[in-house]
Amino acid sequence: MLNNSAKIDENSNPNNPASTLDDDNLEDLSPTLIYDPNIDYERLVCDSIYEELKGDPYIEEMMKIIRQQEDYEEDYEES
Asked: Where is the composition biased (Polar residues) (predicted)?
């Protein structure tokens, strides 16, 4: 059995799976796993997918459209 396995809380709600985890498990989370509202996660995912599939004509076209949209939004915010 794993040492870091989730502990079941006896007061948990079976209709809410997230409630079955004991709060002690939250201490094991590293800071990198906690949501940071200052990070653009959508952009990180997009960049990660692009790095994996770079060179595919469909992906290149989609990235071109995304970049054009970003440029348009930046220009709109500046004016």
From this structure: 1-19
